[in-house]
Design a protein that fits this description.
single chain; about 325 residues; D-Maltodextrin-Binding Protein, domain 2; 2 domains; binds 6-O-phosphono-alpha-D-fructofuranose
Length: about 325
């Protein structure tokens, strides 16, 4: 039976109550979530002062994606890795910013979890003060705790995700967590430095009438998709378009208000632009926990097993009927 938490519950109490229901809990999961919250607070503080702290602009370095790295990307990547390496709860950390997985240093215990993250997605929006976010997914390791993580631990199927979440740094800082079959949103009160439950038990309706896609690429879409989206624009079903161009912001709006987000294959990104392991898997886990669906156009996202850490995927994600309609249009 899922627990119901009243608004105002602190994240700390939520973590404590969640841990209690796991008889085999060693406290590692609780510690992991608390460290994620700490890193999120550090990043939120820095994001909100980016312009002032001279953090805007590019470092001139390239990350593994071949994109210029904004300074905040580096700060966020380091903040989450520093927070998660020393408590001995992770065996490895996989990040969009690092070509290889970061194994927990030998001086720390190699814990039970594999942490996958995009530490600061949408960073091209930093300079224009648009909403950005952190996305993370959590797997349990396959190999023996206390030993270094291996490739078997790193490339697991989406069905092995045990928890996932994101932090959206916008008009406020909100952390959304999918744990134990429920999605809960917590808003940060920066004055007291605590997250408070603001969105209890988030659930999606079967169908919504908002779609999010970058229409500039319509020329490159599968013609079947183009016909489907043209149909949505006929006005018959009262659809509206919303596209911020920052995945976490677009996803969060659709999770709260309903909507389907689409990033189809394009000429520039024939396999889709978004990353499977630390963008699509976490958001797919969250959306399914909230009663929605996530597909690559033909296959359920969580049924996919990545062949490499930075694998890309097409992504259609949101209310179930909307994703069903996209898959039917593409068939
Ligand atoms: P486009 C931001 O750069 C990002 O990785 C996601 O946050 C966002 O959903 C997508 O790219 C936007 O891509 O091609 O529409 O600019």
């Amino acid at each position: 039976m899922q627990r119901q938490f009243e608004e105002g519950t602190t994240l700390d109490r939520f973590i404590f109550e969640t841990t209690k229901v796991h008889a085999d809990a060693t406290g590692q999961f609780a510690t992991l979530l608390q460290q994620v919250a700490l890193a999120s607070r550090l990043v939120a503080a820095r994001v909100n002062r980016a312009g002032l702290a001279g953090m805007l602009g590019e470092t001139g370095e390239m990350n593994v994606q071949g994109e210029f790295v904004q300074k905040l990307d580096i700060y966020a990547n380091d903040a989450f890795k520093r927070a998660l390496e020393h408590p001995g709860v992770c065996a490895a950390i996989l990040s969009e910013e690092d070509e290889e997985a970061t194994l927990t240093p030998d001086r720390f215990h190699s814990g039970r979890y594999i942490f996958c993250m995009d530490p600061l997605d949408g960073s091209s929006n930093i300079d224009v003060n648009a909403t950005i976010g952190t996305i993370f997914g959590i797997f349990r390791r396959r190999t023996e705790e206390g030993t270094p993580a291996t490739a078997d631990d790193i490339l697991q199927s989406g069905n092995e995700v045990v928890a996932a979440g994101y932090v959206v740094y916008g008009s406020g800082t909100v952390m959304v967590l999918a744990v134990d079959g429920q999605v809960n949103g917590f808003t940060l009160d920066p004055v007291v430095g605590e997250f408070f439950l603001s969105h209890p038990d988030i659930k999606l309706e079967p169908k919504a009438n908002t779609y999010s896609v970058n229409e500039a690429y319509a020329y490159a879409w599968n013609p079947k998709l183009r016909r489907y989206i043209d149909h949505l624009k006929q006005g018959g079903e009262g659809y509206r378009a919303r596209y911020i161009g920052s995945l976490v912001a677009d996803f969060h709006r659709n999770l709260i208000k309903g909507g389907v987000f689409m990033y189809p294959p394009t000429e520039t990104n024939p396999d889709g632009k978004l990353r499977l392991l630390y963008e699509a898997f976490p958001l797919a886990f969250i959306v399914e926990t909230a009663g929605g669906r996530a597909s690559n156009g033909s296959t359920r996202i969580l049924d996919v097993t990545p062949t490499e850490m930075h694998a890309r995927t097409a992504l259609y994600i949101g209310n179930t009927v909307n994703v069903d309609e996209v898959e039917a249009a593409l068939r």
